[in-house]
Amino acid sequence: MTEPHAGAVANAARHGDTLYLPALDGVRCLAVTAVFLNHMPRLPVADAGPVIAIMHALHSAGWAGVDLFLCLSAYLFTFLLRREFDRFGRIDLRLFFMRRILRIYPLYFLMLFVGFFALPGLGFGRNNYGAAVEQHLVPFLLFFGNVSYAVFPQSLAGSWAHLWTINMEEHFYFVIPFLAPLLYRARLGVILRGCVAVLLLTATLRLYVLIAPLPPDLLWTFTLCRLDPFIAGVALGIALPAVVDKSNLAIVAAIVAATVGLLLAFPTPAGGDFVWTYPVVALGAAGMLVLALRSRRAGAVFSLRPLRWTGRISYGIYVYHMVVILAVRELLGEPASIVAWAMYLTLAAGGTLALAALSYRYFERPFLILKARRSRIVSRPA
Questions:
Q1: Residues 184, 179: Cα–Cα separation, whole Å
Q2: Distances (CA, A) of 331 to 193, 335, 348, 350
């Protein structure tokens, strides 16, 4: 069997058993920046000019950064587990779950402690506190907070509510190591037909949520309603060499450009829009990954040191950014002008980067070192 990602591996930084794809850190930077901007206060300008309109659209469309994150994770794990499977003949489930625990759990549970106990103990975030603990604490501890998010939206708190996306990603981690060996043994055509079938299933479930009716937030928080980026990432991880080479990168670039254009034109999907928006965004996210991994120019841009550094600490940025944004809101209030918004953005971005960098160095890094010792294929230097 041929090397599944010869092009990607050729551009990787390799150190012994380490396989590092630096451009993917640049993609992480793009994704977390989009989410951060989406959670910022809306630009306080009513001007209908094209520049302001584009800025408003970029703000509203930042939700797609989550799908880019999910697609990247699905691709990377499909890729890395394939290399482990090819090299060792099997996937070590114990080591896989230990690595996930060491990477995800420390920061995740720290933020739950801060949001549910530390901040309320200091007098912050006490609105609906009793209901929040009763309705959300156990689901978030068990990684089903994405469901409680949709069912009990009235008791959510800004400091931890965004962690529902980590719950969704954990569901993928629970499945992929068991599913991957079956995918690696199957024919490409069977895999792609299966992906199409799952995409039709998840679209049907979204229609059901709309018609039933069920809590509308399930459209974007319930894992089975948002499988599109996972499926796109898995398909890319399996089929990249067979469907994409340098001769058709222009087509991929056109797909990415069209996706960005649609996001700017329809930045806030509602109702039936979710049926078609998610697969389109998933396709664009997969295209972004293809360009980062296969295009020399795009790969060089995504591999720029500032982007790689930001991508490396992106998990901390995602976990901490809402606490910092809320703290800046307490300090400055809602921005009422472009100058005030720019000051708000500067403090929120600077504070988030500083906190995430300190967390990575002094809190996350010891766990990452332990994780690397349990890695059969190391994907990033600790």
A1: 9
A2: 53, 11, 11, 15
